[in-house]
Amino acid sequence: MEELQKKITSFKLDNQIFLMLLSLFISFEVILFMGDLEGVTALITGTLMFSFISFTVLMIWLVYNLIQVWSIRQKITNSKEQNRQFDDYLNSVQQQYADLRKFKHDFKNIVLSMKIGSDGKFNENYEELYSELLNQKEMSTDLDGKILSEYKKISNEPLRGLIIQKFFKSKSNGLKLDVHISSDSVDLQENILDIIRIVGILLDNAIEETIKCNNRNINMAFIKNDNTLEISIENPLEHTIDIRKIFKEGYSTKGSGRGTGLANVSKIVDSKSNLYLDTEIVNNNFRITLIILERG
Q1: Tell me, what's the pLDDT at 278?
Q2: Phi and psi of 231, rounded to 5°?
Q3: Where does the sequence pass through the membrane (predicted)?
Q4: What is the mean pLDDT of residues 66-87?
Q5: Do the Cβ atoms of 89 and 165 come closer than 8 Å?
Q6: Kindly report the CA angle at 41 between 40 and 43, in degrees rounded to 5?
Q7: Domain locations along the chain
Q8: Is 80 exceeded by the pLDDT of residue 215?
Q9: What is this structure's pTM?
Q10: Which among 13, 198, 230, 244 counts the fewest CB atoms within 10 Å?
C-alpha cells in the first residue's frame, strides 16, 4: 500500500484518483436516493447496486493498470536518459583524449623546433627536456583496431561506456585492461543497471589492487554459453586474501572505513534470482566471475 501511494505521488495522479473517487461517491449517493423513492422496487435497487459494484471493481482495475503503465513508461524514460548521459560522457572522454594526443604532438614539435638556436648550437638548458621528448613514444590510438572491434561486441551502450571509462582509468594509472569476448555480441536483457553497478565495483577494486602490484595487467572476459553469460575479472594480488570473508561488511585490505564495495555486490546478487558469483585465486591472481542466467 505504501509503495502504491509513492507511485501515485511520483506520477502526479492525485487529481485523477480524487476525481474517480468523487464520481464513485456521487454514484453511490444517487443509488441511495433512488432507493428511497416510492415505486422503485428491490429488483431495480439490487440491479443498480450490482452495477455500482461492477463499476467500482472496473474503476479499481483501470487505476491499477494506469499506475503500472505510468511506472513502465517512467522506467523507460529513465533508462533512455541514463543511456544518453552515458553516451555524452563517453563522447566527452574520447574527445578529451583526442585533444590530449593532439596537444602532445603539437607541443613536442614546437619544442623540438627550438632545439638549434641561431648560432647552430644546442641549448644545454633544455638538453634534458629534449632528450625526454625524443625518447617518448607517440600515444597510440588505444581504441582503434582490435580493441575497438572487441568493445563494439558489447551492444549495451551503458555497459560499453563504463568499460571504456575504466579502460582509460587503468591507462592513466599505468595499467593495462584487456577485454576478451568469446561471442559475436553481448546483449543484456534484464537487471542491466544492477549488472553495471556490479561490474563497476569489481573493476574499481581490480584497479585499486593492481596499482599496488608489479604485475600491471587486468583481464576481463565475457563468456557466452547456451543460457548463461559469464563476466570474469582477474587481477594480481599484493597480499593473500581470505575469499570466505571478502563479501562481509567492513572486510578490506585497504584499511578501516573501507570494504563496502564487495558487500554491496553480494547484496545485489542475493536480491536477484538469475545472478551468481564465483571467486577463486589462481597463481596469486584473484578471479571473480559474475554468472548471469538468461531467462526466456
Answers
A1: 93
A2: -110, 110
A3: 16-34, 40-64
A4: 76
A5: yes
A6: 130
A7: 2-78, 145-296
A8: yes
A9: 0.54
A10: 244
